[in-house]
Amino acid sequence: MYDFQFKPFNEMTAEDYAAVGFMSGLEVHQQLFTEKKLFCRCPAGIYTHDYQAEILRHMRPTLSELGEYDGTALMEFKTKKDIIYRIHYDTVCTYEMDDTPPFEMNDDALDIAFEVAMLIDANIVDEVHIARKQYLDGSIPTGFQRTAITCVNGKIPYKDREIGIIQMSIEEDSCREESDIGHRRVYLTDRLGMPLIETVTAPDMKTPQEVADVNQIIRRLVRSTGHVRTGVGAGREDVNVSVTGGTRIEIKGVPSIKRIPVLTYNEAMRQWNLLRLREELHKRGVTPETFDYKIIDITSILRRTYYKPIHDAIGEGKIVKCVALKKFKGLLNWQTQTDTYFSKEISDRVRVIACLSDFPNMIHSDSYENTLSTAEGTKIRKFVGSWEEDTLVIVWGSEQDCDTAAKEIAIRAKEATIGIPSETRQALHDGTNGFERILPGPERMYPDTDLPPKRIFGERIERIRKNVPIQFWILENRYKELGLRPDVVSNLSTSKFNKVFDYAVDELKLEPMLVSIALTQFIKRIKREGIDISALDETNLNSIFKALSENRFTKDSLLYIIKNAALSNSFSVDYLPTLISADEFASQYNLVLTEINSLELYNDTNKKTLLLDYLMKKVKGRIAVQDVISFVNENFKG
Amino acid sequence: MMELKEDYKGYRGQTLECLLKYEAMVWCDVEVKTNDGTFIGLILPRSEQADEYHIVLKLRTGYNIGIASEKVQDIKINGRKIAVYKIPEKEFPFDPKKPNVKLLGTGGTIASRLDYRTGAVIPAFSPGELYGSVPELADICNLDTQKLYGVFSENMGPEQWIGTATAIVKEIRAGAHGIVIGHGTDTMHHTAAILSFMVQNSPVPIVMVGSQRSSDRPSSDAALNLIHSVRTAAESDFAETMVCMFGPTSDEYGLLHRGTRVRKMHPSYRSTFRTIGDIPIAMVDRKKFTPLRNDYKRRRDDRDVELMPFFEERVGMVYYYPNMHPDMMDSMIDNGYKGIVIAGTGLGHINKPLYPALKRAKDKGIAVYMTVQTLWGYVQMYVYDTGRDMMELGVVPCANMLPEVCYMKLCWALGQSSDLNEVKRIMLTPIAGEITEREPSNGYLIYQGGIPEVEEFISKYRK
């Protein structure tokens, strides 16, 4: 059944992915650009590592609306973590700390969410219901994230088909994790509560590259509103992957779109190889029903070991346990991802659930290399009373943690006989992924009792609809037809200035190329110089182009005029330099010429360049550069 | 009709008509076709306070949305699954070696569940439910519970207070090692005060507890407050009526406040309860008690508890403000009130225009008592002329009794006697620490945020 063998990443073809039934969907998170946070009036977008106070909390699972406990919630409760929140007075108030109920939802944020909903052609809900989505990892001090569906059933075009958008929600951002060591996890709270939208696609992507492509489309689409934040962490994505016979696995914390193809490739491979592992186990007669193991305390027989981690642990009064997995011999070395083996699946669980985070946190008999001696291995096997066909997993820690760890090892091993456990996994730097937590189900949703449902009136939707940008793929086609450069097409189609472009080109009849470059490259260049470009809004840019179309200045001074507008934080035609008359130009020329002639130069051939340079400074913006050059060429005789 | 109500719970008007038309009942798994497209999910009951224009649908992802019923074109039903919201119930284990604690419930969110009628959380607890959600309790004691009332704390009144006091005394006489009272937090300090007067000479701890942040949230203070209070009732040596709630907002320790000196100081903070004008009795955490003072009443083996369930309902309280007119007081005088507590400014003052009203009250034999709205400090009416004038008019200064405590005590005192001298004797004789002879200098500490040394302190200890 699972005959296909994964090839190296670069050799995989679309057919290969089809063979394993690769399916992937995205959850794209995008912070919205608002002045304040979503449910309180704290400023949004201020980040700092400084803090003035700390708060300690523990999380406890609660029931869902349908009266069920969520699996993740129970797992997090098992880990018994101290959660520490670091607080900076400027960025959080008592709301984020869950010592004050929420204030009404930020309407600016909701408007932006609806704007995006229109861009993805989705059905906007008539009444927004705020839900609590449980997060017991502590990333939100309440233990849940306030989130609400704004629309469902959207779509975006991709290649010759459509990618479905299942839903889009508006939600509050979580804390940033500072550290997570043993039983103590520390969070920064500055980002907490900032508004973001989460766009969830259907699992319509069939290859890793398609996932990246679609992510790029969504990112560009939301950015085209001009109402979302950009920069590190402002856009983040979770990727869901499954293969035939596998399970939907969520990879969280994908740092950049570029990393998506390798990450999804590795996850598909992991699922496929776990299915092959299950096949192997079944062949050995190990099924969920016959799965067998035992846990034995082996502290006493390892008291004299030279293997440092265990030696030190026993020295600190910790204990060592051995989990004998019946008929698992060799399988901990079963490959799951690139350079990653089944033992990693187990070690990850031990780290997360039992909080044993110093590595190595376990060893096993499939390779004792550089750990225990052969004699010790034999001694343990004899002591435990286990056969050659078994694998022994050895773990150490405080009595409670070691106990949790040993049980978790058996749980994960048993899961291998069932298939692929539903998990949330974490993207790692090498393109593989590691266990983060059990995948939460719909059980973790709970209606927010602090805030009533919010009715969305038609007038509001119509008001927003008036200002929704045109979808960038439509603009791209138009710009291509106008013959714009490809890089400019891409930039301009998602730029907030595309209405300025329409005005300048359609109404003022300016050259499309010139306008497009001014709106993308020029502004970018000015910004890069560190100049505040907030004055370069639609109104001012429209005025600048209008002045240009009326020949109030020459087109080669366009950059100069735009830059001046940014620098002076305003633009008015009244302050434009008047175009120079022929007489005045001639007299300016003569003045400069006299000045140049009075200079003693080492090399007279530089004289002309110098002259041009001096002259340009005097008449800049008042005459076309070409006219200056022609005049100098004609009149300057060296 | 009743059945219809259940099947279409919370829906009315045009939306009810729409649902009836398609026989789409709550908990039906449906495909709703509307002008905007198709929505798939489970129809949920609607909160009765919500409008009549929307259907609530739980989508497959667990999210809820509202769909305008006027847009509905068709509803296709694919099944029905009625959800039962129930805290998993496990039988509370019994250990003969462990102390027996009785938890009396009056309401509040110490353990709660969702109410679809109002969309709010409603309290629910049985020993089994509590064990299901806070299993740690079984390590402490044998817990038995009794639900006396299920009211929000603002709806507590004389009937409930007398009923609660009577129940406490009954349980103590029956041998309980400690009493815990689950209570909404808003008026917990009122109830704590009246119970301090109604139940006297208790040989065991009487601990009031609640939660500031409802127990339907993972970060709730409910579980830890419950653990702290049950431990206090089962194991501590403090045989007083106390309030046990979070010390800091962090999950660190609880404070045991004397029932007559405690006050809710923030509408939502976990560390809302503070001892005013004194220091708490003790700190309590998962492992130990840390007494902060030595003058508390000790636990005893006898059962000599005294019940004094007296209450006069015709007592009012005015929070004085400048520009108050005498008719505010007159209305109580004319309506047959027997007692008035004033929360005066500063050391216990009100303006001159009210004097005639005070005179009328005196002439009618109404007991008028003065407290300070500054909460901290003593009424000292002899300091200024205004104070002396008022004492002439029969106003009795109530030392450092908190206004709410004074109110409760006056109700209780007038319930025992209509002789104003006797009432005065009862009022000014401290029973449970409601009047103290001295205010220790650390009894008044309100740290001012922003000041460097305060900030330095805060940065060292968790809030």
At the third CATH level, what is the topology name of the largest domain in chain B?
Rossmann fold
CATH architecture of the largest domain in chain B: 3-Layer(aba) Sandwich
How many E strands of chain A? 23
The major sheet of chain B is characterized as: 8 strands, mixed
SSE class of chain B: alpha/beta
Structural classification of chain A: alpha+beta
Shape of chain A: elongated
What would the keywords be for this entry?
heterodimer, A: 638 residues, alpha+beta, Gyrase A, domain 2, 4 domains, four-stranded mixed β-sheet, elongated, B: 463 residues, alpha/beta, SH3 type barrels, Rossmann fold, eight-stranded mixed β-sheet, 12 helices, 23% strand, globular
Task: Please explain how this structure is put together.
The complex is a heterodimer of chains A (638) and B (463). With 638 residues, chain A is an alpha+beta fold. Chain A folds into 4 domains: 9-248, no CATH class; 282-421, Gyrase A, domain 2; 470-575, no CATH class; 582-635, no CATH class. Helices cover 37% and strands 21% of the residues of chain A. Chain A has 19 helices and 23 strands. In chain A, the strands form 5 sheets. In chain A, strands 1, 4, 6, 7, 8, 11, 12, 13, 20, 21 and 22 form an 11-stranded mixed β-sheet that branches. Chain A has a 4-stranded mixed β-sheet with strand order 2-3-10-9, with no helix packed on it. A 4-stranded antiparallel β-sheet of chain A has the order 14-15-19-18, sandwiched between helices. In chain A, strand 20 (423-427) and strand 21 (433-438) form a beta hairpin. Chain A is elongated and about 110 Å long. Chain A starts with 13 loop residues before the first helix and ends with a helix. The model of chain A has no long low-confidence stretch (mean pLDDT 91). With 463 residues, chain B is an alpha/beta fold. Chain B has 3 domains: 2-80, SH3 type barrels; 100-307, L-asparaginase, N-terminal domain (Rossmann fold, 3-Layer(aba) Sandwich), CATH 3.40.50; 315-428, Rossmann fold. In chain B, strands 9-6-10-12-13-14-17-18 form an 8-stranded mixed β-sheet, sandwiched between helices. In chain B, strand 22 (367-372), helix 9 (385-392) and strand 23 form a beta-alpha-beta unit. In chain B, helix 5 (188-198) runs parallel beside helix 10 and helix 10 packs across helix 11 (420-428). Chain B starts with a helix and ends with a helix. Classes of the chains: A alpha+beta (638), B alpha/beta (463). At the A-B interface, strand 2, strand 4, strand 5, strand 6 and strand 7 of A face strand 2, strand 3, strand 4 and helix 12 of B. Strand 5 of chain A pairs antiparallel with strand 4 of chain B.
